[in-house]
C-alpha cells in the first residue's frame, strides 16, 4: 500500500504518457496541416481571390 497523500508511480506515468501523446498529436497537426489552403472564394467580378 502507498502512504496517505502520495500518488502511486503509475498515475504519474499514465499522466505523463497522456501529455506526451497530446503534445505529439498537436505537433503533428501543426506540422502537417500548416500551409494548406482550406478554402478559397472568387469575387463576383473575377478579379480577387480570398483565401
Which sequence of SSEs, written as H and E, runs from N to C? HEE
| Rounded mean pLDDT score | 80
- Which structural class do you get from the secondary structure elements? mainly alpha
Number of helices: 1
Percentage of residues in DSSP E strands:
5-15%
Main-sheet strand order equals 1-2
Approximately how much helix is present in the residues? 40-55%
Structural description of this entry:
By secondary structure, this protein is mostly helical. The chain is built from one helix and two strands; from the N terminus they run αββ. Strands 1-2 form a two-stranded antiparallel sheet. The longest helix is centred in the middle third of the chain and has 25 residues, at 9-33. It is rod-shaped, with a radius of gyration of 23 Å. The model has no long low-confidence stretch (mean pLDDT 80).
Any key phrases for this structure?
51 residues; two-stranded antiparallel ribbon
Structure in a nutshell:
It is built from 1 helix and 2 strands; from the N terminus they run H-E-E. It has one helix at 9-33; strands at 41-42, 49-50. The longest helix has 25 residues, at 9-33.
Tell me the layout of helices and strands.
Layout: H1 9-33, E1 41-42, E2 49-50
Antiparallel strand pairs: 1-2
Amino acid at each position: 500500500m502507498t502512504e496517505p497523500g502520495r500518488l502511486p508511480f503509475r498515475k504519474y506515468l499514465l499522466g505523463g504518457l497522456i501529455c506526451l501523446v497530446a503534445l505529439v498529436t498537436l505537433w503533428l497537426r501543426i506540422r502537417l496541416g500548416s500551409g494548406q489552403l482550406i478554402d478559397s472564394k472568387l469575387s463576383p467580378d473575377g478579379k480577387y481571390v480570398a483565401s
